[in-house]
Amino acid sequence: MTHKLLMIFFCISSYVVSQNKTTYTYAIKGSDTLKLDVYSPKEIKANDSLPVLLWMHGGGFAGGTRDHPQEQKLVEYVTTKGYIGISISYRLLLKNSKTGSGCDCPKAFKLEIFKQAAIDYLDATKFIIDNKSMLQINPEKIIAGGSSAGAESILNAVYMKAYFVDDLKRFKDVKYAGVISLAGALVNAEYISKSNALPTVLFHGTDDPLVPFASAPHHYCSAEKPGYLLLDGSETIVKKFDDLGTPYYFNKVIGGKHELCAIPFDQLDTIMQFFEKTVFNSEIIQTKKIITKN
């Protein structure tokens, strides 16, 4: 197994005993039946309308599953904090690809993958909003979250909807209250503005070889390669938030690589407290946690 494949596997690995869940189909696209798993607090009441974590797994647009134990553990955890936890599937357009998402994957195809993954995420969001009463979700309090490829997808869906979506009217009711990005990047941070900037949690390693930490080519491809595509990573996004006065929690690991895509279970309480203060109480908090990897 190559070094890159090992890092992708790391982002979809971990085990925990699963609990009850309800599964829905949110879209059928060609041969792909796209589903989402909804986890609710055991003590939910009939009239409750709860905040949501809507999660998108990683796996290089080639692997991973919505019901992998790591994803299950996360969405189960948020139910203990009074949230609905939802984990989605999406089209894995690089599954069985010979190039993967690396430097031999043409730029135009990478952009199309980003576009379709973002649209899948928006479609999942639209589904839960359209069914808000049945699912008992508060459409004003949806936290968009993802890891690695999932983080790239949700960042593009949240901040670059105007770039990737042809029919914006379809998603006129779709909006988010906050963001969690684990080793993610987006195509152009200039699309982040005062009107769309949200409280955002970012985890990233400065030496991530796949998803750029700041502004650099995806997979650090050289300019003559077909897969040369500039992306803006967490450092660039945070600089934008500094300029806009947007709340953020930035976990920066000096020397860290793509392992920062792993769900930080030891910091979830801190992350939930950040959203409690910034989303629910409208506080402006900008936290940079800088760690040097041993």
TrEMBL record:
The UniProt record lists the keyword Hydrolase: yes
Membrane-crossing segments per the record: none
Keywords: Hydrolase
InterPro entries linked to this entry: AB_hydrolase_fold, BD-FAE-like_dom, GDXG_lipolytic_enzyme
Any single Pfam family the record assigns to this protein: BD-FAE
Domain BD-FAE-like: start-end pairs: 36-160
Domain of life: Bacteria
GO MF assignments: hydrolase activity
Name of this chain's protein: Alpha/beta hydrolase
